[in-house]
Amino acid sequence: MNLVFASVLAVSLVVSCSLVASAAEKTPAAPSQKPKNWNAPAGKIYAQSLSDEIMAKHPELISVTFHGVPPELDKVYTMFAGSFPERIGNPDDPDDIDVITKGITIVDPRWNKKDPVKKFVMMMPLRDAAGGHIGLLVLAYKNQANSGKTETDFFLAATELRDNLQKQIPSYAALFKPAR
Asked: Are 139 and 158 in contact (CB under 8 A)?
């Protein structure tokens, strides 16, 4: 009897293992994170120091990021500085590229989004001191429930911040120079 039981148990285990292995082969792997499309230099660049300065002066922000095509590259749209350093070098999304290539502004109230922190995102053309369009600035504002703030309030605040920042950017190339 024990020999029959042991044989049935062994066959059951083999069948179970092969079913699990078969199911594992058919289960798609978790999507891998997109590979970086640019690596920042070892030292801090001027754009990163601007990002750090903005975050220190603006507690109403969740994040600030700078996007564009790094020098000596062609159509490699990436985040090159920002308040989430681990995201530097991540490829830009299509809406980021639209702002960079078309010079449009995106006002994103994040309706029906499941963000861990309620926010309002402004995606605006980044400009240099001469007024030239040089990339993308993304500002994510804290947006507490019932804050009473409107799209216009966020737009005006972001525009003022961006326009003041513009005065500190002599050129696009300067953003990639070592921080002072």
From this structure: yes
